[in-house]
Write a structure and sequence with these properties.
alpha+beta; single chain; four-stranded mixed sheet; 4 strands; 99 residues
């Protein structure tokens, strides 16, 4: 996976994909929570926001039929999916278990 900021293909952090629709207003607090988590876990995970309306192939690859959908992609092994909106503490617990 290519790091969007540096263009470097050598990953040092685990990527996490967040699938959201265009204008994710109905998801409520999710985008601010994801920004906070990206800062707190900087260097450990990278959070990418994926627009399901624009990235239909990628959304289909992960069967993103229920959104928001969070995908944790380890360096080795299968991706882990977390479906549905939750509070920050729940996301932190899922990330900590994943790491």
């Amino acid at each position: 996976m290519r790091n969007q900021r540096s263009g470097n293909t050598k990953a040092t952090s685990l990527p996490s994909l967040t699938f959201m629709p265009t204008g994710a207003d109905h998801v409520g607090r999710q985008p601010p929570i994801m920004k906070e988590l990206a800062k707190e876990y900087a260097g450990k995970i990278i959070i990418y926001k994926v627009n399901v309306d624009r990235q239909k192939e990628l959304a289909a690859l992960f069967n993103a039929t229920s959104i928001p959908l969070f995908v944790f992609i380890p360096m080795k092994g299968d991706p882990q999916l977390f479906r549905g909106a939750a509070d920050k503490a729940t996301y932190k617990k899922a990330i900590d278990e994943f790491l």
